[in-house]
TrEMBL record:
Biased composition regions of type Low complexity, renumbered to the chain: 91-123, 203-214
Species name: Streptomyces polychromogenes
Pfam families associated with the record: DUF3152 (PF11350)
Comp. bias (Pro residues): 17-27, 36-48
Name this protein carries in UniProt: DUF3152 domain-containing protein
Region listing for Disordered, in residue ranges: 1-175, 203-245
Top-level taxon of origin: Bacteria
Length: 445
């Protein structure tokens, strides 16, 4: 439909009527109506799912204003009515429902009062004629400098029905979108302003930056700082003192786990290092070997031998002799710590049977003084578990005494200390005389 020139006031009946426009309800070439509900607004482009009549397009130069338009009461002959579901024409409801919202909400009729611009121009048709009035559409709004996408085309989104009485195609939705976008932009700007203001305040407030002072990177906190650490004013728990190493006496007082029937590898390691003779008299040199795999401290064993032999109550009493441990070279004998099985094998070389009572020996036909590791670790019933240090001292003095040429002795005075050469591991009672355990050669000194 083209433009219509305006010819001044006059009645609609006197003016020649143009040829009626084709009805929007005429079927297409296939005789069927397009599917979908009636448009939400006759002035808006059809919503998704609504097709326009085939072969016809709307004029892009006019905006159609709805003034109570109603479909014709009767269809021309040859066009059967087709009632469709979803609210299309022919479904049967009243005209008010036919022109309701496409989602099902009835739409109020547009106001029919003439506007100021229409006063000088008579309407093209009266409402009773059933034809829409044609008028110029309002100019397009200027692009929003905040939300406008410039020269780029906007991607169309889902369309919503215009408010009752709204004019134009989607102007209300665009305005609302720009309004919401502007509000969101203002909200983001306000949040950023608050964050920046908080940062500026924190940088200028020593109390706010007190957390940095705890790490040494910020200003020092004032004494009355309310943001002080929770630990301020609380006593700091004292750290437990570092574990002190056990003394020699404490280590020698402990029992050591070992199997009474253990037979070791038979391979010995010499304890390294030199322990000089501390006293006067004849120097007796010895070496210390420990069988591999016993799980006992070789250095502690070597220290025990050196301390025991050079004690004034031992064989070096009154400067008779002094003992020196050497790691290699010429040695008068070798004090050897070995498993019960290995001890038995070396003692058998000197015709001694240590398997009975699991004892130690001086294998005189060899260089070795054999200390049974089971006795070294567990002690004996005659001394008890609380006398491990004294028992080990007795064991060293007794077996080295054999190497120095001393034989077994027995206690002769009841209740007196047993002689060092008595077999105290086996018994403290000999010939019904009970003696006390004694680890020294000269116990009274």
């Amino acid at each position: 439909m083209g433009r219509h020139s305006r010819k001044g006031p006059g009645s609609a009946a006197a003016r020649p009527q143009p040829e009626p426009a084709p009805s929007p309800y005429e079927p297409g070439p296939d005789g069927l109506y397009e599917p979908g509900p009636y448009p939400a607004d006759p002035y808006d482009p059809a919503p998704p799912g609504y097709g326009e009549r085939r072969g016809r397009s709307r004029s892009a130069e006019h905006t159609v204003v709805h003034d109570g338009f109603a479909p014709p009461a009767a269809r021309p002959a040859g066009h059967p009515e087709q009632r469709e579901e979803g609210g299309a024409w022919g479904a049967g409801p009243a005209p008010a429902a036919l022109y309701g919202d496409w989602r099902g909400a009835p739409r109020a009729a547009a106001p029919t009062a003439p506007t100021a611009g229409d006063a000088a121009v008579p309407p093209f048709a009266t409402p009773a004629s059933g034809f829409p009035r044609v008028t110029e559409g309002p100019p397009a709004p200027a692009p929003d400098p905040v939300t406008s996408t410039g020269s780029h085309r906007r991607v169309p989104g889902p369309r919503t029905p215009a408010a009752p009485g709204a004019r134009g195609s989607g102007g209300g939705r665009g305005t609302r979108a720009r309004t919401y976008t502007g509000i969101a932009a203002l909200a983001v700007t306000a949040v950023l302003a608050v964050v920046i203001a908080g940062q500026v305040t924190s940088e200028g407030d020593p109390a706010a930056s007190g957390a940095h002072a705890a790490g040494g990177d910020g200003p020092e906190r004032a004494p009355d700082d309310k943001a002080a650490s929770r630990s301020d004013g609380r006593p700091t728990p004292a750290s437990p003192p570092p574990a002190q190493p056990l003394t020699y006496e404490q280590q020698m007082a402990r029992q050591l786990p070992i199997d009474a029937k253990l037979t070791g590898t038979g391979v010995f390691d010499t304890v390294p290092g030199l322990a000089k003779a501390p006293g006067k008299g004849k120097v007796v040199r010895y070496r210390v070997d420990v069988e591999q795999g016993l799980g006992m401290d070789p250095q502690l064993f070597a220290e025990a031998v050196q301390r025991t032999l050079n004690d004034p109550r031992s064989w070096g009493h009154d400067g008779a002799m002094t003992f020196e441990r050497v790691p290699d070279g010429k040695a008068d004998f070798v004090v050897t710590l070995a498993s019960p099985g290995t001890t038995g094998a070396w003692c058998a070389k000197s015709d001694l049977d240590t398997t009975i009572d699991n004892v130690s020996c001086d294998s005189a036909s060899t260089e070795r003084v054999m200390i049974n590791a089971f006795r070294w670790g567990q002690g004996s019933a005659t001394y008890g578990a609380d006398q491990m240090l004294a028992y080990r001292q007795m064991l060293i003095n007794h077996e080295v005494g054999h190497r120095l040429g001393h034989g077994h002795e027995s206690c002769r005075t009841p209740g007196s200390p047993a002689p060092i050469m008595q077999q105290q591991t086996k018994s403290l009672d000999i010939d019904n005389i009970h003696c006390l355990p004694n680890p020294w050669v000269f116990p009274g000194n």
